[in-house]
Write a structure and sequence with these properties.
- This protein is an alpha/beta fold.
- The chain has one domain: Rossmann fold (3-Layer(aba) Sandwich).
- Helices cover about 40% and strands about 20% of the residues.
- The protein is built from 7 helices and 7 strands, in the order αααββαββαβααββ.
- It has a 7-stranded mixed sheet with strand order 3-2-1-4-5-7-6, sandwiched between helices.
- β4, α5 and β5 form a beta-alpha-beta unit.
- The longest helix has about 35 residues.
């Protein structure tokens, strides 16, 4: 515990200009509008390469969840720049949501690249409050690298279950806490406060598999995987889907 605190202090000292900007109330607006959309696009490219085969495997059965009308209505939470669009089947109708509206440039670019989809609308909404989406109105909800930064994972999953129709599916790929006995978890604890500040609320030590197991899914398929991203503490991931 003492070594974690000492190393946290050292890291905070290195990042002291950001802490100062945060104290002055200047970091958060800059982060949301400029830094985070920029850095997420760059990290997203690397993460996309590492996770491509896992996403291909994850989304391969997405067409099986088409509604009675034959259409597939997908709601993506925390769409960001739209890195998942390439994995969706042709013709599906996509509603995009994000709490941060400042991804428009990269999102528009990915929409143009993926003309095989029908884009319904973009909603500025927190994952815990999807009141703009009617209950039981979508066939699938997608959430990748988002649950790490929501204010309440349990509230988010309740909203997911609300908007899904019976028999619909929730798809996820998220970074999680490492095993407590491993050095990776030690470094996650060290980096936690500074990482959360710099990366717009991203939490390194959430054990999200527990939240998913506690949610009221009738079926849950999930596995732990490792995605090695150089110089980052986000190697452990979970991937899978739950059925309402």
């Amino acid at each position: 515990g003492a070594s974690v605190l000492v190393l946290r202090a050292c890291l905070a000292l290195l990042a002291s200009p950001i802490y100062l900007l945060s104290f002055l109330g200047m970091w958060e607006p800059f982060c949301k509008k400029v830094f985070f959309p920029f850095i997420l696009e760059k990290i997203g490219l690397l993460h996309g390469k590492k996770s491509k085969k896992h996403k291909e495997e994850l989304f391969c059965n997405l067409p099986d969840f088409r509604g009675p009308s034959g259409e597939l209505k997908v709601l993506e939470i925390g769409t960001g720049s739209g890195s998942n669009f390439q994995f969706y089947p042709p013709g599906c109708r996509v509603t995009c949501t994000d709490i941060n509206p400042n991804f428009q440039q990269s999102l528009s670019k990915n929409m143009k690249k993926n003309q095989h989809l029908h884009y319904e609308r973009f909603l500025v909404a927190a994952a815990e409050d999807l009141r703009q989406v009617p209950s039981g109105s979508v066939d699938a909800v997608v959430c990748t690298l988002v649950l790490c930064s929501v204010h309440s994972v349990s509230d988010t999953l309740r909203e997911v279950l609300r908007v899904l129709r019976p028999g619909g599916a929730f798809y996820f790929l998220e970074h999680v806490a490492a095993e407590h006995s491993r050095w990776k978890y030690f470094w996650q604890q060290v980096c936690y406060p500074t990482w959360k500040l710099i990366f717009d609320g991203c939490c390194l030590t959430r054990e999200l598999w527990k939240n998913l197991e506690e949610a009221k899914f009738s079926e849950l398929k999930m596995k732990h995987i490792s995605l090695a991203l150089p110089w980052t503490p986000i190697e452990p991931h979970i991937v899978g889907y739950g059925v309402k």
